[in-house]
Protein backbone atom coordinates (compact mmCIF):
# COMPACT_ATOMS: atom_id res chain seq x y z
CA UNK A 1 0.00 0.00 0.00
CA UNK A 2 1.31 3.43 -0.93
CA UNK A 3 2.18 5.87 1.81
CA UNK A 4 -0.48 8.62 1.86
CA UNK A 5 2.01 11.49 1.94
CA UNK A 6 4.02 10.33 -1.07
CA UNK A 7 1.75 12.08 -3.56
CA UNK A 8 3.08 15.42 -2.23
CA UNK A 9 6.67 14.55 -3.09
CA UNK A 10 7.83 15.65 -6.50
CA UNK A 11 11.12 15.08 -8.17
CA UNK A 12 12.95 18.35 -8.79
CA UNK A 13 14.44 18.17 -12.26
CA UNK A 14 18.08 19.18 -12.54
CA UNK A 15 18.84 22.60 -13.95
CA UNK A 16 20.24 22.29 -17.42
CA UNK A 17 23.70 23.66 -18.26
CA UNK A 18 24.84 26.69 -16.36
CA UNK A 19 22.99 29.86 -17.39
CA UNK A 20 24.99 32.51 -19.20
CA UNK A 21 23.15 35.63 -18.05
CA UNK A 22 21.27 36.73 -14.92
CA UNK A 23 17.98 36.71 -16.84
CA UNK A 24 18.58 33.15 -18.03
CA UNK A 25 19.49 32.13 -14.48
CA UNK A 26 16.27 33.59 -13.07
CA UNK A 27 14.23 31.81 -15.75
CA UNK A 28 15.98 28.48 -15.12
CA UNK A 29 15.45 28.69 -11.37
CA UNK A 30 11.80 29.73 -11.64
CA UNK A 31 11.13 26.97 -14.19
CA UNK A 32 12.69 24.40 -11.87
CA UNK A 33 10.71 25.57 -8.87
CA UNK A 34 7.44 25.73 -10.81
CA UNK A 35 7.87 22.21 -12.14
CA UNK A 36 8.64 20.90 -8.64
CA UNK A 37 5.55 22.39 -7.05
CA UNK A 38 2.16 20.83 -7.44
CA UNK A 39 -0.33 23.09 -9.27
CA UNK A 40 -3.02 22.80 -6.62
CA UNK A 41 -0.69 24.32 -4.00
CA UNK A 42 0.83 27.11 -6.09
CA UNK A 43 -1.02 30.27 -6.94
CA UNK A 44 0.66 32.99 -8.95
CA UNK A 45 -0.22 36.50 -7.79
CA UNK A 46 0.94 39.24 -10.15
CA UNK A 47 3.10 42.00 -8.71
CA UNK A 48 0.45 44.62 -9.41
CA UNK A 49 -2.04 42.74 -7.21
CA UNK A 50 0.52 42.14 -4.47
CA UNK A 51 1.40 45.82 -4.30
CA UNK A 52 -2.20 46.97 -4.51
CA UNK A 53 -1.38 49.50 -7.22
CA UNK A 54 -3.66 47.94 -9.84
CA UNK A 55 -0.90 47.89 -12.42
CA UNK A 56 2.76 46.97 -12.58
CA UNK A 57 5.26 49.55 -11.36
CA UNK A 58 7.27 51.10 -14.16
CA UNK A 59 10.78 52.33 -13.45
CA UNK A 60 9.72 55.90 -14.17
CA UNK A 61 6.80 55.58 -11.72
CA UNK A 62 9.02 54.18 -8.99
CA UNK A 63 11.40 57.11 -9.36
CA UNK A 64 8.64 59.70 -9.04
CA UNK A 65 6.58 58.06 -6.26
CA UNK A 66 6.55 59.97 -3.00
CA UNK A 67 6.18 57.93 0.13
CA UNK A 68 5.27 59.47 3.47
CA UNK A 69 8.43 60.56 5.19
CA UNK A 70 8.91 60.52 8.96
CA UNK A 71 10.19 64.07 8.58
CA UNK A 72 7.90 67.01 7.83
CA UNK A 73 6.64 67.49 4.30
CA UNK A 74 9.16 70.26 3.64
CA UNK A 75 12.26 69.07 1.86
CA UNK A 76 15.25 68.43 4.07
CA UNK A 77 18.03 70.90 3.58
CA UNK A 78 21.34 69.49 2.53
CA UNK A 79 22.87 68.22 5.75
CA UNK A 80 26.29 69.59 6.62
CA UNK A 81 28.05 66.75 8.37
CA UNK A 82 30.92 67.76 10.63
CA UNK A 83 34.24 67.14 8.94
CA UNK A 84 36.24 64.22 10.30
CA UNK A 85 39.98 64.61 10.14
CA UNK A 86 41.84 61.81 8.35
CA UNK A 87 45.21 60.92 9.81
CA UNK A 88 46.99 59.07 7.01
CA UNK A 89 50.11 58.54 9.15
CA UNK A 90 48.59 55.69 11.19
CA UNK A 91 49.31 52.38 9.46
CA UNK A 92 49.36 48.94 11.09
CA UNK A 93 50.84 45.83 9.56
CA UNK A 94 48.97 42.54 9.81
CA UNK A 95 50.65 39.43 8.42
CA UNK A 96 52.81 41.58 6.18
CA UNK A 97 49.88 43.61 4.83
CA UNK A 98 49.81 47.35 5.64
CA UNK A 99 46.37 48.48 6.87
CA UNK A 100 45.67 52.20 7.19
CA UNK A 101 43.60 53.43 10.14
CA UNK A 102 42.91 57.11 9.39
CA UNK A 103 40.27 57.49 12.12
CA UNK A 104 42.20 55.98 15.01
CA UNK A 105 42.09 59.38 16.71
CA UNK A 106 38.34 58.83 17.30
CA UNK A 107 39.09 55.88 19.60
CA UNK A 108 40.18 58.13 22.50
CA UNK A 109 36.92 59.29 24.16
CA UNK A 110 38.76 61.69 26.49
CA UNK A 111 40.46 63.70 23.71
CA UNK A 112 39.08 67.23 23.25
CA UNK A 113 38.94 66.83 19.47
CA UNK A 114 36.78 63.70 19.83
CA UNK A 115 34.45 65.40 22.32
CA UNK A 116 33.97 68.35 19.91
CA UNK A 117 33.33 65.99 16.98
CA UNK A 118 30.74 63.99 18.94
CA UNK A 119 29.03 67.21 20.07
CA UNK A 120 28.73 68.39 16.44
CA UNK A 121 27.30 64.98 15.45
CA UNK A 122 24.73 65.19 18.27
CA UNK A 123 23.77 68.73 17.21
CA UNK A 124 23.20 67.55 13.63
CA UNK A 125 21.13 64.56 14.77
CA UNK A 126 19.00 66.70 17.07
CA UNK A 127 18.33 69.20 14.27
CA UNK A 128 16.98 66.40 12.03
CA UNK A 129 14.97 64.71 14.79
CA UNK A 130 13.40 68.03 15.81
CA UNK A 131 11.63 68.12 12.42
CA UNK A 132 10.29 64.57 12.74
CA UNK A 133 6.49 64.67 12.98
CA UNK A 134 6.07 61.12 14.27
CA UNK A 135 8.74 61.32 16.96
CA UNK A 136 6.48 62.17 19.91
CA UNK A 137 3.86 59.62 18.87
CA UNK A 138 6.56 56.94 18.65
CA UNK A 139 8.03 58.03 21.98
CA UNK A 140 4.58 57.68 23.59
CA UNK A 141 4.08 54.20 22.17
CA UNK A 142 7.50 53.00 23.32
CA UNK A 143 6.99 54.54 26.78
CA UNK A 144 3.64 52.78 27.12
CA UNK A 145 5.22 49.45 26.17
CA UNK A 146 8.05 49.79 28.71
CA UNK A 147 5.94 51.18 31.57
CA UNK A 148 5.41 47.99 33.57
CA UNK A 149 7.30 46.44 36.49
CA UNK A 150 9.99 43.90 35.61
CA UNK A 151 11.75 41.38 37.84
CA UNK A 152 14.83 39.42 36.85
CA UNK A 153 15.34 35.83 37.92
CA UNK A 154 16.58 35.67 41.52
CA UNK A 155 19.84 33.93 42.26
CA UNK A 156 21.53 32.76 45.46
CA UNK A 157 25.04 33.84 46.47
CA UNK A 158 26.63 33.41 49.87
CA UNK A 159 23.43 32.47 51.63
CA UNK A 160 21.44 35.46 50.30
CA UNK A 161 19.04 35.89 47.42
CA UNK A 162 19.62 38.66 44.86
CA UNK A 163 17.31 39.96 42.16
CA UNK A 164 16.92 43.01 39.94
CA UNK A 165 13.71 45.04 39.84
CA UNK A 166 12.66 47.89 37.53
CA UNK A 167 9.42 49.77 38.24
CA UNK A 168 8.95 50.49 34.54
CA UNK A 169 10.62 53.67 33.39
CA UNK A 170 13.80 53.52 35.44
CA UNK A 171 16.97 53.86 33.39
CA UNK A 172 18.52 50.88 35.21
CA UNK A 173 17.18 48.03 37.30
CA UNK A 174 17.85 48.15 41.04
CA UNK A 175 19.62 45.25 42.76
CA UNK A 176 17.75 43.94 45.80
CA UNK A 177 19.11 41.55 48.43
CA UNK A 178 17.00 39.28 50.59
CA UNK A 179 18.94 38.12 53.62
CA UNK A 180 18.17 34.56 54.63
CA UNK A 181 17.82 34.11 58.37
CA UNK A 182 17.55 30.72 59.98
CA UNK A 183 14.23 30.13 61.65
CA UNK A 184 14.35 28.28 64.96
CA UNK A 185 13.03 24.77 64.63
CA UNK A 186 10.18 24.09 67.04
Automatic annotation (TrEMBL):
Molecular function in Gene Ontology: oligopeptidase activity; serine-type endopeptidase activity
Annotated signal peptide: none
Ranges where the Peptidase S9A N-terminal domain occurs: 82-178
InterPro entries for this protein: AB_hydrolase_fold, Pept_S9A_N, Prolyl_oligopep/macrocyclase
Any Pfam family the entry gives: Peptidase_S9_N
Top-rank lineage group of the source organism: Eukaryota
CC terms in the record's Gene Ontology section: cytosol
UniProt name for this protein: Peptidase S9A N-terminal domain-containing protein
Organism per entry: Ensete ventricosum
Amino acid sequence: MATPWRHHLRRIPPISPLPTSPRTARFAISRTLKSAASPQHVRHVPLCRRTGLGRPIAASDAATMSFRSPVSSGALPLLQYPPARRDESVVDEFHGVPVADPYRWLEDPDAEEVKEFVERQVTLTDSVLARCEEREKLRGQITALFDHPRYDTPYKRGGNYFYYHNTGLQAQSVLYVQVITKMPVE
